[in-house]
Amino acid sequence: MCLEQSRGPLLFALLKYDFLVLYPINPTTLARYRQAFTPSFAKDDPTDAEYQAEILLHHRDRLRPWLPDDPKTRTLQLLVEHRRRLVGDRTRISNRLTALLKGYFPHVLTWFDDIRSHLVADFLLTWPSLDALARVRTATFEAFFRRHHCFRRDTVERRIASIREAVPLTSDEAVISASVVMVKALAAQMKTTLDSVAELDRQIHHLCSTHPDFPLFDALPGAGPVYASRLLAAFGARRDRFASADELSRACGIAPVLERSGSKAIVRWRYFCPKFMRQAFHEYAGESIRHSFWARAYYDQQRSRGLEHQAAVRALAFKWIRILWKCWQTRTPYDEAIYLDCLRKKGSPLLAFAASHHT
User: Fold this and answer.
1) Does the reported pTM lie above 0.85?
2) Strand partners, 265
3) Nearest residue to 324 via CA among 312, 314, 333
4) Residue 290: which residues within 8 A CB-CB, separation 6 or more?
5) Among 64, 107, 158, 277, which residue's beta carbon has the most beta carbons within 10 A?
């Protein structure tokens, strides 16, 4: 059976029929195939179904059947994607909250280092405006901060003193009243989002602690529980899924694309790929710069050649994929000392660059 999705309700519904072989195809592939026979751009679902059947019948050798990972790995894949979306929601809520507070209650942004916390959310739900703080006793503030595990006496006293000395930014009742309603709504959303992220972290930790491949990614410099789980989800448990590191780098969108026509050649990044998978490799590569000696040197080398930050990080991610694929295939945890020794034995110019750059 051929379908235009690699996940979704239709695919999930068909999974219970183990006698079906599913062939997901990219919607762009079907659109180009349709356009070849209907230049007028006419589109109809029954016709599209016929085109899908033709592709499956005549070009099955170019399609890859969908072979799912084991249930534990697929659960992890969905959980890490849900977590990343919630982290994005947390950022969006904090940005909206910051913009709103700047308009009528900017003092909160100076009283607290990070508004993405239960402390700030509960503070705004209890006292959503400066007027609400006017007649609150010092003992009430102290009890509130103790409930949120703020035990540093000097910090609590400094906050309370700043609250007492605060001067309103505006006295416009319309602005304050409308903003209070919205701030309380955003603070409630922030609390729910933070609780959801924490719950997903617990579920992800439980799955990773029992997954046989997790130690391979947990050993990576700077991976931590977040990136280690995302990389594990990106690789999966099936070793036959990617025949080579190059195939993996193309599948995740890190490898560039070559466009050549006559004497003109352009190298660009891939437009169509699993965005979350590419993001996992890209973000880990950026984090590894702070924790890996050779990764820092490689990044600096790419920047010295004129690459922008994002391009240099993608080049580093391409390098990491080759290392991780080998570790994954051989089930060997990464060891920085062993890799540096291999670079030394091969006479890698990267170490010479690192030595000259360091001095």
Assistant:
1) no
2) 260
3) 333
4) 222, 296
5) 277
